Amino acid sequence: MPRVVADDVAHDPSVVPASIARQETEIVRVDLETVEKEALLDERASFRFWTFNGTVPGPLVRVRVGDTVEVYLKNREDSWLMHNVDFHAATGPGGGAELTSCAPGEAKAFRFKALNPGLYVYHCAVPPVAMHVANGMYGMILVEPESGLPPVDREFYVMQGEIYTTEPFGSEGLLNEDYDKLLNERPEYFVLNGHVSALTDHYPMKANVGETIRIFFGNGGPNHVSSFHVIGEIFDRVYLNGSVTKPPQTDVQTVVVPAGGSAIVELKLEVPGRYVLVDHSLSRVERGLAGWLDVEGKEAPDIFEPIAS
Ligand SMILES: [Cu+2]
């Protein structure tokens, strides 16, 4: 029998910090704890994840351009390995990686000024970096522009990742990380928010007809480019590469998101039903990658309806 694992790393995609209303800059404290834990990979298997704050992705940090971000990193006592954090939003060597390298039980801190607005990835950068990232050590920080982002009805936080196990996809039990497959860029699993079915059975996204939603989408990688797509919907606006200083592209079907990169997409929801988030490199759906956006509300037959054949 597969063994039952209670622990879970999935980050609830609806947990997003509120938008920033203030006009003045501030010092923002960010506490990150690196936690290694065995947790659910799918209903049959578990995996020893490495995380920021116990979730994959780690928390979404939200600041304003010009803010000073103070990052306090603690590596939990029971960790097996050294960890740190590289903020892509930081200007300075390693994005803070050297300054935050902590052995188990250690704590370190650094500060950076958020000079450039946009949606940025952060990740552990202890060698082999690809292994720390693949095992779950990534998240994002949104640096809002001075005027903020336009208001929407709901925001979601979704990140893609790859998991490299010795055992083939769908195996049972505690699976082992595989260094050769990592170097050959051959993951067994592709996931959204940590594990298979994290954004389907576990945390489906919910919204209503008439609402406009925004998805902060990031690609932890560590290796594969994502072709992010929502089946049955069209992105009304896309902030390509997470860049918010130019007007967004409009009316986009699929958006390319590089490893270590991001995109912000906005969708107005007109027709109720289930919409599926995928990487349109669709073989990855067979390796675990999918998310549900469940939209409730009145049918819109003027937009979508069956007709007699
Ligand atoms: Cu690490």
Q: Which CATH class of the largest domain?
A: Mainly Beta
Relevant CATH superfamily of the largest domain: Cupredoxins -  blue copper proteins
How large is the count of helical segments?
A: 2
The portion of residues forming beta strands comes to 35-45%
The share of residues in helices is under 10%
Average pLDDT, to the nearest integer? 97
Can you tell me the overall shape? globular
Number of domains: 2
Number of E-type strands = 20
Briefly note the CATH topology name of the largest domain: Immunoglobulin-like
- What bound compounds does this protein have? copper (II) ion
**Low-confidence blocks of residues:** none
Using the 3D structure, state the CATH architecture of the largest domain: Sandwich
Cα-atom Rg, whole angstroms? Answer: 19 Å
Termini gap: 48 Å
Domain Plastocyanin-like: 41-147
Keywords: Copper, Metal-binding, Oxidoreductase, Repeat
Enzyme class: oxidoreductase
Family: Belongs to the multicopper oxidase family.
Q: How is this fold's topology laid out?
A:
Elements: E1 27-40, E2 45-52, E3 61-64, E4 68-75, E5 86-87, E6 107-113, E7 118-123, H1 129-134, E8 138-144, E9 154-163, E10 173-175, H2 179-183, E11 189-192, E12 205-208, E13 212-221, E14 226-231, E15 235-239, E16 249-252, E17 254-257, E18 261-268, E19 273-279, E20 291-296
Copper (II) ion binds next to loops.
Task: Tell me about this structure.
- This protein is mainly beta and 309 residues long.
- The protein has two domains: 27-144, Immunoglobulin-like, CATH 2.60.40; 154-296, Immunoglobulin-like.
- Helices cover 4% and strands 41% of the residues.
- The strands form four sheets. The chain has a six-stranded mixed beta sheet with strand order 11-9-13-18-15-16. It has a five-stranded mixed beta sheet with strand order 6-4-1-2-10, with no helix packed on it.
- Strand 1 (27-40) and strand 2 (45-52) form a beta hairpin.
- The radius of gyration is 19 Å and the shape is globular.
- The protein binds copper (II) ion.
- The site of copper (II) ion (CU) has 6 residues, from loops.
- Copper (II) ion binds at residues 50, 83, 124, 126, 132, 137.
